[in-house]
Structure formats: C-alpha cells, structure tokens
Design a protein that fits this description.
This protein has about 90 residues and is an all-alpha fold. It contains two helices and no strands. The protein is rod-shaped and about 125 Å long.
Length: about 90
Amino acid sequence: MRFTRIYLTAATTVVLLVALGACQKKDEVAGPAETAGKQIDEAGAAANEKLREAGEKINQDAIELTRKAGEKMEQAGEKMKKAADKADD
C-alpha cells in the first residue's frame, strides 16, 4: 500500500512537471497558422491605410477640379454676357 502511494505521488509529480514545462506564453511561440494570420492582419491594415490615403487624395482632387470648373463656368458666363451686350448694341 505504501509503495503504491509513493508510486502514485511520483507519477503525479512527473505528469505535473511535464505539463508545466510544456506551458509557454502565447507570445513566445506562434504556430504557422497564427503567424500567417498576423501577416494577413498586417497586410490588411496596410492596404486599408493606402486605400484611405488614396480616397483622401481623390477627394482633394475632386474638390480642386470642381473649383476650377466653377471658375471656367464663370469666365464663360462673363464672355457670353459680353457677347450678348455687343449683339444688343
């Protein structure tokens, strides 16, 4: 009986030591799927940032183009008014 108890205690201790030795912090070792997932996340974040920057550039260009078009329309309106005034004379 005493031998069985000692044997059981020793076996339990060995199992616990092996289990604790196998434990690692999640950040220390990443498997291939986790590494690939992190790379995909980083690539997605970079692509998102590039798309946001491109969207801002397109928006700025559209505002500038609209402003220039408005100026040209005003100039054309003034020329048409002058032409109409000349025609009335």
